[in-house]
TrEMBL record:
Pfam families (UniProt xref): BPD_transp_1
High-level lineage: Bacteria, Bacillati, Actinomycetota, Actinomycetes, Streptosporangiales
Gene Ontology BP annotations: transmembrane transport
One Gene Ontology cellular component annotation held by this UniProt entry: plasma membrane
Record-annotated ABC transmembrane type-1 domain positions: 72-263
InterPro entries: MetI-like, MetI-like_sf
Source organism of the structure: Murinocardiopsis flavida
Membrane topology: Multi-pass membrane protein
Subcellular location(s) of the protein: Cell membrane
Protein name stated in the entry: Carbohydrate ABC transporter membrane protein 2 (CUT1 family)
Amino acid sequence: MSAPRSRPARNWGVYGLLLLLAAYAAGPMLVLLLSAVKTPAEISANPLSWPAELQWDNFATAWVDASMGTGLLNSAVIVLSTAGGVCVIACCGAYALVRLDVPKPGVVMLYLLVVSTLPIQLSLVPLLSWWTTLGLYDTQFGLIVIYWALYSPFATLLLRSYLIAIPPEYEAAARIDGAGELRVFTRIVLPLLWPGVLTAALVSGLQAYNEFIIAVTFIQDSEALPASIALFSFQQGYATNYALVSAAGSIMVLPMLLLFLALQRRFVSGYTSAGMAN
């Protein structure tokens, strides 16, 4: 008789924990949206209070003052180029590690793991000097190349876990029919690898969209700045207009939020499938 009573209690406990986690995750976003419709004085007085009057003009002011339209367009170019390049590099690297006879693949994997965990700040000074010499400084292409190198190691390890789960018999049958390695990869492996490719593209795209330190270091042209740098536009001497910063941040978050909600199932299933393959 005790089992039926304990099960609802256990379910309520799980639901309560999930509710707390949801509030913890959504809390900062709600505070950001609330600050976006307040005056700077109200934010200074109490960031969590309800505004006396909703300041919807903050969004229009932030859009114009920070050139959010140009910034979002630049971010779209950077994100799409980064995701596409990372997927190509990671697909080729993962396929070589799993299917081809690469000398000491364990050493290569250890190198990828170490590189993916190193902070980029260690390489900023030599990379800045090198990019200036090569003429890649203050160009979007130069920034995209850095993102390729920065996000490809993790994507390669992620796609490798997918490739391990794909039976090699499919590729052997294609080789018997006379297909080369490139044809085997594009016609046999890539369609089966597509969920992992989509996950790698989403992860690298989100990282490139939110990245700040590299973008502010390697891009100085105001017409080439991504949206993440637009928040600097509201720095006035030693003071910051946090109402406009919150409004610009809300505008910046909206595209990625909609994209994640639209592809949430594929994103989560991609991560879980990679974990099961490992």
